[in-house]
Every structure is written in C-alpha cells, then in structure tokens.
Amino acid sequence: MQKRVIILCYRKIIDIRSVKQWDKLVFESTYLEFKMQAQNFSQGTAYTSYAELLRNVPNAQRLTGMVIPSVTGYIQQLGGIMPDILNNVGRRFLTFSKFQLEIINSDINDKDKHQIAVNFYSEPLIWHDTIDSYLLISDHTPEIQQFAENNSISTNLMQLQPYINITSLQYHN
C-alpha cells in the first residue's frame, strides 16, 4: 500500500492585536528592527510604509531578510515545536524543521500597521487518513518506519484549522 508523506505549513500572523506573550515579543522585536532597517531605505524620501518602499526603492525587498535576526532567538525558544497547533488531547506535538518570516505590512511612523507572518514548515509526516475534519498523522523517520514493521506506530489526531496547509505531498511504496 502506498503511503502519503506530507509537509504541513502553519502561517502564524502576528500584529498589534496579538495577545500571547511570545507573539507580543516577536511583534515588538520585528517592528523595532523593521523601523531601524527601513530608515536606511527611506532616507531622503517621503516613503514610510513597507509597500511604498517595495514599490519605489531599489533593493527594499531585502528588508525581510534584514529583520529575520530579530526573531531567530524567539524561534529557538520554541524548541522545534510549532506554537498553537495541538493534537486531539490538547498537546503541542508538531515539529518544524524550518521557518520563513514575511512582512505583510508595516510603517516606520505607525506601529499599529505592523503585521508579520511566521510560516512554520513541519518535518515530513505520514498522512494515514482523514476522519471528518481531522488528520491522522505520524512521524516519518527511519526509527518510526522500523517500529512500523511491528504493525504499530504512534499517531496524532489533529484538527484542520485556518492557516494550516499541506505544502508537499509525496507517495511512497
């Protein structure tokens, strides 16, 4: 039987309305870094918003990469476990192997307009089944596969929710 190996992406949007402590810290850190770095691009212009800078200033797309160092320490605090995503018994379980920062909106002069997304990409998972609005998944590692030969593997039941996407699907024999 073919098994389906998937990679999930969770897009966590953070803005001024975010209430969780981790989110607030990431918000503050990324806004301060954006403000500092954007001034290098806006100097001598009337452009203060991220969108204006992208449209009118050469190399302004580099801003995202310049803001990433302000969030890496907070990402490390997660210990490789995605925030907010729980299995059916209320435990965080979904590991991630990489992340991507995205500046959605921001303005040097208006903190309220700052909005980012952190996209977390899971380690490969085996997608066993879909039960109603739940995915039945398990880790896809050599150790798990060896254990699976005994006809028993550890699984997680995860409810589908907004901002979760299957970004990769592979079939294996």
- Secondary structural class: alpha+beta
Indicate the overall shape. Answer: elongated
Please give the count of helices: 5
Number of strands: 7
Mean pLDDT: 94
- What is the helix content? 25-40%
Calculate the terminal CA-CA distance, rounded to whole Å.
Answer: 6 Å
The biggest sheet, with number of strands, parallel, antiparallel or mixed sense and barrel status, is: 7 strands, antiparallel
Which residues sit in consecutive blocks of at least 5 with pLDDT less than 50?
Answer: none
- Along the chain, the helix and strand elements come as EHHHHEEEEHEE
Radius of gyration: 20 Å
**Strand-residue fraction?**
25-35%
Provide tags for this entry.
elongated, alpha+beta, 173 residues
Describe it for me?
This protein is an alpha+beta fold. Helix content is 29%, strand content 33%. It has five helices and seven strands. It has helices at 21-42, 50-56, 63-67, 69-77, 142-148; strands at residues 3-15, 96-105, 115-122, 125-131, 134-139, 156-159, 164-172. Strands 1, 2, 3, 4, 5, 6 and 7 form a seven-stranded antiparallel beta sheet that branches. The radius of gyration is 20 Å and the shape is elongated. The chain starts with a strand and ends with a strand.
